[in-house]
Automatic annotation (TrEMBL):
It comes from Barnesiella viscericola DSM 18177. It catalyses: (6R)-5,10-methenyltetrahydrofolate + H2O = (6R)-10-formyltetrahydrofolate + H(+); (6R)-5,10-methylene-5,6,7,8-tetrahydrofolate + NADP(+) = (6R)-5,10-methenyltetrahydrofolate + NADPH. This is Bifunctional protein FolD. InterPro entries: Aminoacid_DH-like_N_sf, NAD(P)-bd_dom_sf, THF_DH/CycHdrlase, THF_DH/CycHdrlase_cat_dom, THF_DH/CycHdrlase_CS, THF_DH/CycHdrlase_NAD-bd_dom. Pathway: One-carbon metabolism; tetrahydrofolate interconversion. The gene is folD. Its EC number is 1.5.1.5, 3.5.4.9.
Amino acid sequence: MQLIDGKAVADRIKQEIAQEVAEICNAGGKRPHLAAILVGHDGGSETYVAHKVKACEQCGFKSTLVRYESDVTEEELLRKVDELNNDPDIDGFIVQLPLPKHISEQKVIEAIDYRKDVDGFHPVNVGRMSIGLPCFVSATPAGIMELLARYNIETKGKHCVVLGRSNIVGKPVATLMMQKAYPGNATVTVCHSATTNIKEICRTADIIIAALGSPEFVTADMVKEGAVIIDVGTTRVPDASKKSGFKLTGDVKFSEVAPLCSYITPVPGGVGPMTIVSLMRNTLLAGKKAIYK
Ligand code: GUN
């Protein structure tokens, strides 16, 4: 079994990005600038956004954090989105999800200028991704593809089972795994809450991408010997022995699954750091106007 070290790969990519940013700035170019909107004080969202801001520093980007209390109106949030759309110094921005119930996430996502949508959530980017056109690919799926590529994992002709059908991970990663390119060319099955025989399907998988948000859902009896396991889960499970009071727990029962497989991502330190670094790469692409002129 080989551990897929997402943190090490992400650190290397951040260095590559920082190098490129230094070259751009030395040549008189503009420093990439990412803005993030954070609504409320959800613990997970606070942590993710703090990681994004720190990664910006490491990459040599400018970053701006815009905070609102959870009672902000949809109108006010949409006004800020419009302001960022029209701010020439901002290359890309994200609105951290989830949003409070009184705000339509879809409305907010669609209000973002797709040319600044470095999360890749806007329907223009989703659509372009699904037909293989240049676009901002959402960060977690892009990070997973990068890990498969950096570890030279064969995907062509393999049976890839995706667990979960979210717009952020399950659907886009299934699309990318079936595209006619490496890493891709896999035969993809998507399982979700209405799938009746998940265990049997998983047992036929060469690659499992678990993105359900259900702690330790994938157990040893669901995994074929030699399978590749990508664990996207990051649920906070109460743990009194931790200073934070919780333990980040993946969708895979690591202790019993790891000995069976050829490659596996740990939680934390697997997909998570790659998600952040993919957002940094999208921001660099936005800064360079490499996708949309
Ligand atoms: N919430 C969970 N994951 C993400 C992400 O990748 N981007 C944003 N904006 N919100 C999230």
